[in-house]
């Protein structure tokens, strides 16, 4: 690097977000890019967490960044997300003891299990092939003076050889949890999610299908294959769940990633305060792992006590932006981190390639609204109803709803390059924002339902297998993946159809829970009752539900759903256990509150 050199873009941080942004710019422009990092070795010699891609991020890395061949050669293709719960009355030492929820079919959009170190090394190698890309590591004393007018930003840094002064038209912070710009610009912001994580990697494949007393032949021929399919279950991101926590099992080439994510307000963190304690806890909580983990070679481990945070702003027409963990991070459940990188990098790239000043100001205002909206839509998922991980029925309702939104309002627009089309953004926001109040109410309702079930009686004493796509609008939402190359008018029609389906799905979730409370499956088709439900204000209060339904109990007109309303009746028992106490749940100033009164 020469003193007083000028670049189009300075990117701070050579992690997943920074390397991906550099590659996206290099593939779509001749911008001169300088990528700097304080670390001396890129990628890190330590194993990096955050390996699971889902549809949006997988499409971004494979198609937008043209890394498909590398992903197929060096990383496992992923078999969706699968979730497991212990079965009451069993020792749960065998894999087949566990209840499961999953999507049996592979997604039309291939997703992957990333070895972060491998893909970051590959992106750096590819970027260095471009003459307009410069990389500088072991950087110290980085100083950035942001310009407030059209002049370039001023940058100073030290390398092992010299001190350098340079200029850049754009500065993008992808420094991760160092939060270079957010700290200096006073942009740090808390969110209501207080979760922690502890994770480690072991040598070899932890094949959960083999954690059993069954013989290889019995494993091959088990009847559950009819529901689960024959694809290797270990290829999934496998989640072993309990109230306020989940334990992941993710396969990588030659190693397995394992980790616990937990709500600090529910889970006793002292139980897993060291790696030996974590392994001991896992083997005790989910006994099938006692067959395997104590005998594995540990390759690396780490932890985060409180990992979630917000950011006041992540893009500005003064030509600076923030992406990846340098800005906002929610929670690893459902693997949204890669999605936010993909969305933010795409909007940032478009802003950098915008030459008209007035257009840039307009775009940055709208893009900031989009970036904040993408993030905020995730928050209730993690802050309100994380406890519902403790119950298969509650979680199935929760996840099917969230996944239907994700497929239709995140993945569909992204694979059609619509988020940088100004004509599309306004019609998208007008529909997407309608889901916010419904989602917030639904998350509270599901959490309250879970607490009611928890206090009310024993869980089902039998193993249950269910496919998420059997629930509500989810299957129809997945079909939006097949709408590609659409015009803005066509996209509007797709979103209108999906929005109507999502509203009906929200109505179904409230109806199904009401049917469980009333121990009456006929509730599921009572049109008068179903149409009386207010999606924004329907509270979970068993007495109120009984009183409301009594007004319509004699109605005979049938509500016509666009999907099977009986898909989850397998969770309903007849008759339901008698109540030992009455539970009343409401929302107060401090959040969800419930009280119990002995009967």
Descriptive labels:
FAD/NAD(P)-binding domain; 22 strands; eight-stranded mixed beta sheet; globular; disordered C terminus; alpha/beta; D-Amino Acid Oxidase, Chain A, domain 2
Q: Mind explaining what this structure looks like?
A:
With 599 residues, this protein is α/β, with parallel strands linked by helices. The protein folds into 3 domains: 5-65 and 114-186 and 311-364, FAD/NAD(P)-binding domain (3-Layer(bba) Sandwich); 76-111 and 194-304, D-Amino Acid Oxidase, Chain A, domain 2 (2-Layer Sandwich); 434-598, no CATH class. 37% of the residues lie in helices and 20% in strands. The protein has 16 helices and 22 strands. It has helices spanning 16-28, 55-64, 68-74, 116-127, 180-184, 216-221, 225-228, 275-285, 337-352, 357-383, 392-415, 422-456, 474-478, 488-518, 527-531, 542-550, and strands at residues 5-12, 33-36, 76-77, 81-85, 99-102, 112-113, 133-136, 140-145, 153-158, 163-173, 188-189, 195-203, 237-242, 245-252, 255-263, 298-304, 310-311, 315-316, 320-322, 465-467, 581-588, 591-598. Strands 1, 2, 7, 8, 9, 10, 18 and 19 form an 8-stranded mixed sheet that branches. It has an 8-stranded mixed sheet with strand order 16-12-15-14-13-4-5-20, covered by helices on one side. A two-stranded antiparallel sheet has the order 3-6. Helix 1 (16-28) packs parallel to helix 4 (116-127). The longest helix is centred in the last third of the chain and has 35 residues, at 422-456. The radius of gyration is 25 Å and the shape is globular. Mean pLDDT is 94; it is low at 574-599.
């Amino acid at each position: 690097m020469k003193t007083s050199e000028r670049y189009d873009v300075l990117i701070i941080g050579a992690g997943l977000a920074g390397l991906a942004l550099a590659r996206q710019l290099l593939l779509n422009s001749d911008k001169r890019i300088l990528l700097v990092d304080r670390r001396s070795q890129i990628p890190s010699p330590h194993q990096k967490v955050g390996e699971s891609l889902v549809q949006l991020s997988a499409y971004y890395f494979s198609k937008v960044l043209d890394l498909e061949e590398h992903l197929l050669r060096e990383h496992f293709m992923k078999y969706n997300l699968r979730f497991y719960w212990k079965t009451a009355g069993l020792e749960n030492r065998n894999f087949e003891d566990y209840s499961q929820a999953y999507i049996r079919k592979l997604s039309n959009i291939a997703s992957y299990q990333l070895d972060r170190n491998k893909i970051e090394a590959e992106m750096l190698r590819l970027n260095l092939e471009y003459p307009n890309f410069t990389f500088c590591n072991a950087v110290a004393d980085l100083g950035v003076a942001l310009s407030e007018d059209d002049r370039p930003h001023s940058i100073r840094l030290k390398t092992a050889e010299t001190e350098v002064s340079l200029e850049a038209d754009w500065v993008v912070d992808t420094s991760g949890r160092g939060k270079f710009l957010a700290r200096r610009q006073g942009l740090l912001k808390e969110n209501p999610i207080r979760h922690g994580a502890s994770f480690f990697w072991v040598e070899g494949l932890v094949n959960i299908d083999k954690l059993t007393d069954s013989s290889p032949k019995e494993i091959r021929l088990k009847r559950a294959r009819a529901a689960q399919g024959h694809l290797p279950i270990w290829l999934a991101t496998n989640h072993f769940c309990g109230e306020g926590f989940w334990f992941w099992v993710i396969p990588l080439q030659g190693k397995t990633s394992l980790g616990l994510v937990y709500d600090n307000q529910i889970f006793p963190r002292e139980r897993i305060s060291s790696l030996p304690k974590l392994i001991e806890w896992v083997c005790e909580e989910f006994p099938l792992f006692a067959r395997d983990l104590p005998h594995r070679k540990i390759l690396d481990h780490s932890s985060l006590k409180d990992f979630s945070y917000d950011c006041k702003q992540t893009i500005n027409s003064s030509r600076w932006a923030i992406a990846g963990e340098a800005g906002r991070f929610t929670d690893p459940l459902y693997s949204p981190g890669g999605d936010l990188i993909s969305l933010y990098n795409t909007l940032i790239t478009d802003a950098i390639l915008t030459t008209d000043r007035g257009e840039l100001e307009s775009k940055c205002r709208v893009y900031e609204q989009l970036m904040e909206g993408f993030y905020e839509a995730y928050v209730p998922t993690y802050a309100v109803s994380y406890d519902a991980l403790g119950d298969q029925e509650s979680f199935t309702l929760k996840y099917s709803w969230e996944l239907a939104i994700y497929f239709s309002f995140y993945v569909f627009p992204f694979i059609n390059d619509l988020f940088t089309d100004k004509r599309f953004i306004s019609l998208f926001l007008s529909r997407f924002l309608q889901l916010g109040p419904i989602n917030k109410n639904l998350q509270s309702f599901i959490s309250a339902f879970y607490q009611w079930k928890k206090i009310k009686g024993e869980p089902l004493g039998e193993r249950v297998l269910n496919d998420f796509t059997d629930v509500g609008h989810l299957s129809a939402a997945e079909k939006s993946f097949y709408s590609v190359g659409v015009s803005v008018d066509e996209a509007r029609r797709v979103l209108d159809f999906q929005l109507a389906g999502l509203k009906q799905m929200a109505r179904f979730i409230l109806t199904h829970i009401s049917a469980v409370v009333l121990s009456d499956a006929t509730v599921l088709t009572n049109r008068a009752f179903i149409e009386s439900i207010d999606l924004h204000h329907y509270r979970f209060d068993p007495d109120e539900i009984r009183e409301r339904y009594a007004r319509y109990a004699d109605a005979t007109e049938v509500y016509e759903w666009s999907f099977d309303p009986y898909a989850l009746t397998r969770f309903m028992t007849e008759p339901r256990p008698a109540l030992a106490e009455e539970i009343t749940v409401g929302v107060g100033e401090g959040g969800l509150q419930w009280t119990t009164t002995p009967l």
